[in-house]
Amino acid sequence: MTFPNLETKRLKLIELTHQHMNAVYEILSLDEVTRFYGTSSFTLQAEATRLIDIYYKNYIDKRGIRWGIKLKENQRIIGTVGLNMLNLKNKRAEIGYELHPYFWRKGFATEALSEVLKFSFKQLGLHRMGAVVYPENEASLALLDKLGFTNEGLLRGYMYQDEQFHDTFMLSLLKLEWEKSQE
Known about the structure:
Layout: E1 6-7, E2 11-15, H1 21-28, H2 31-34, H3 45-60, E3 65-71, E4 77-87, E5 92-99, H4 108-123, E6 128-133, H5 138-146, E7 150-161, E8 164-174, H6 175-181
Parallel strand pairs: 5-6
Antiparallel strand pairs: 1-2, 2-3, 3-4, 4-5, 6-8, 7-8
């Protein structure tokens, strides 16, 4: 099973391997990145290695796909994007992503997510893409709104992070809605 590398105008979406451990650690050790991520900031590089191993196992088991977001201009990994809770039988998944703060508000997340949505609906034949977002994460909510996602409502006490429960919104985008937005 060959990993599906994707490409956009400015980015390559690639399989993460242990050689990307430092970049993953650098990003996920930042509190501003993990604030709405559902997990605490990394304090050990071994956590990044373990996460890359989880991404690989999820891909092999067909439960998820996670791409490293690599800039074409300098080959730097600036974040990740991918499908969580992938369920091919029921044709659904949840999208997740994070970027190094230096690359926020420059259109990279929109570019990467747009390509993953295209791949998910056209190549994988998914019907529904979900997203779980903290209500305080206004930037992520705005991004998903721009991409056509609908806020389905509040999931009370849905995430447990830093020893407390957090509410989240559940958003979704259906294949037909995505297709209409591509016309």
